[in-house]
Each structure stands twice: as C-alpha cells, then as structure tokens.
Design goal:
heterodimer; A: mainly alpha; B: mainly alpha; elongated; binds zinc ion
Chain lengths: ~260, ~70
C-alpha cells in the first residue's frame, strides 16, 4: 500500500464519479435549470428583484454577457456540465484517496476498504451536506450579482469549518473510544460535530436572495443538486473502496505466499 | 509493493508513513484545489484570467454542485 497506489485509484474512481454525476445531473437537474432560466428571461423586463446594479438592464442573468464570451445553452448543459463534473470528480477522487491513504491503519480496526469508504461518507457530509444546509444551491435567476464575492467567501469558510470540525470530531471519537468503548466514542464525536456546526451556522450570516422565485422549482433544483453530489460521492466511495480492498487482499496473499516460502 | 505488509501478514492493517505521503498530498493537493477553484469560483468572485469564458463554460456544473454562481 503506497500513496501512489491510492492516488492512481482515486483518480480512476473520480473519473467514474464525474461521469455518473454528469449523467444524473443531465437527466435530473437540467430540466429544472431550464425552467429557472425561462423564468429568469420572462422576468428580465420587469423590475428585477435580484439585480440592483447601477446600470439597469446590464445584468443578463445566467449569461453575464457584458461583451464577454457567450456559450450556447446546448454546450452549457452537455460539454460544459461534463467538464465541471469531471474536473470536480477527479480532483475530489485524488483528495479522498490521499486522505484514505493517510488514515489507513489509523482508524480503529477498520480494514483498508472500510476506512476508505468511511472517508468518502464523512467527506460527503462535511463537504456537501452540511454546507448545503446553511448555504443551499441556487438555480439561475436567484442571486444578487453584487454579493457574489461575499457569498462565495461565506460558502467556502463554512465548508472549511465543517471539514476541520469533522476531522477534530473523528479524532475525539477515536480517543474516547480507546477509553470508554465504541458507543461512547461515537456519541462524543457526533455530539461535538453537531453542536459546533449548529453554533457556527447560527453565527454565520444568512443569505436570502430568493425573492419571488417559484418555490416548487427551487425545491426540485436543490433536491437535484443533492442527488447529483450524492451520486458523485457514492460512486467515488464505492469504486475507490472496492479498488483499495482488492489491492489489500492481493498484497496480503502475496505476503502470505512469501511467508510460506520462507518457512519451507 | 510494500514492505510493511510483507513483514506482518496478520490482521494488522499497515499504515503509510506521513512523511512518505506529504509530497504527494502537497503536489496533488495544490493541483486539485486549483481545478476546484476554476470550476467553482473563478470569474465570479474574482477573475484570473479576466473575462467570463470559464464561468460560462462550466456554468451549469457550478450551479448544480452548489457553488454560488451569480
Ligand atoms: Zn449562473
């Protein structure tokens, strides 16, 4: 088991995860994105609730075409979406694999496949689910162009807090487990995570720029967003933990054969 | 492939020395963060390079994967 072996498998798992996320996103989410864009375009002439930029009418919604590049909707929902899910999938695949390499043999008595799957599961909760609960995904037509900077900062700050608290909670759970058993360890770890994240969520600024966007489309889009990222992380975790498990059992059988040969 | 498993073919799970892991984590970590920043935040919150070609191309993915887009 080497760092390189983990990374190669992580990139491969990330490739599959990116393709799966594209397929699910294309069929589940793209119809909602189109509905949102249609809504946005039908409301462009009306006094827009989400644009308060100085020159009225300069903001053109999903295509911020202030003399810049214009990508067709067809390309955005096919090759553009695929580019995004592949880039994120492969990047996450490598990161998850290297974290899995780092925790290998360091999380209780978990096998390599099990600890890798745990990293992917906790990763989805820390990187996607918890940030989503505070700053949920928004379809086109929602969002004030003037606040994009602060909203991006807040989203990533909350994500980093979530990741750091997940690591600390896991370390606490393992430490407590050594002294008081698995049940108490889990309780301590999960308890610390929930309490700290609820407090952090209360302290971080609220973003509400929904305006009078239709609630049904908003919910369908957000649900589709969760389904897409869940698909990405599930495929990533399943493929990577499968590959790592196979690598481990192969190395074990080689080691067993060597030991047998040495004993003869 | 690994010396740690060969030495102990028991149920003990081998671990990878963090010193061996660090250069991989540093190098790939930087690359991965760069890729994520380009898809998630570039030409929105800030613009390097200027323009909107990257933003427009990955637009749907940016919305769908939960990043603030506009
Ligand atoms: Zn957008």
């Amino acid at each position: 088991m080497t760092a390189r072996a983990f990374l190669v498998r992580g990139l491969l798992a990330g490739l599959f995860a990116g393709i799966a996320a594209f397929a699910v996103g294309y069929f589940v989410a793209e119809p909602q994105i189109q509905t949102a864009i249609n809504y946005e375009e039908s409301h462009e002439d009306a006094p827009a609730t989400h644009t308060h930029s100085g020159d009225a009418g300069a903001e053109a919604g999903h295509h911020h075409d202030e003399g810049g590049t214009v990508v067709s909707r067809h390309n955005q929902r096919t090759w553009g979406l695929l580019t995004g899910t592949l880039a994120i999938g492969i990047a996450l695949g490598g990161i998850v694999a290297l974290v899995a390499a780092g925790v290998l043999g360091r999380i209780g008595a978990l096998s390599p496949g099990q600890s890798t799957a745990l990293v992917a599961l906790l990763g989805w909760v820390a990187v996607i689910l918890v940030p989503f609960l505070k700053y949920p995904a928004n379809p086109p037509a929602i969002g004030n162009a003037d606040t994009i900077g602060s909203r991006t900062t807040e989203y990533f700050v909350f994500m980093v807090i979530s990741i750091v608290v997940t690591v600390l909670s896991t370390m606490l759970a393992l430490r407590v487990r050594d002294h008081y058993g698995t049940y108490t360890g889990l309780l301590a770890g999960v308890g610390l995570f929930v309490v700290v994240m609820v407090i952090a969520g209360q302290l971080m600024p609220t973003v509400n720029e929904v305006g009078d966007f239709p609630a049904d489309t908003l919910w369908y889009f957000r649900r589709a967003s969760l389904i897409t990222s869940a698909t990405m992380w599930a495929v990533l975790g399943a493929v990577l933990s499968g590959l790592v498990g196979r690598l481990y059992s192969r190395e074990q059988s080689i080691a067993a054969r060597r030991a047998l040969a040495a004993s003869l | 492939m690994s010396q740690t498993t060969a030495a102990a073919p028991t149920v003990e799970v081998p671990s990878i020395p963090l010193a061996e892991l660090a250069p991989w984590a540093l190098f790939f970590g930087l690359l991965a963060v760069l890729a994520i920043v380009f898809v998630s935040a570039d030409q929105g919150a800030f613009s390097i390079p200027s323009g909107n070609a990257i933003h427009e191309w990955v637009h749907d993915g940016r919305h769908l994967l939960g990043y603030p887009c506009h």
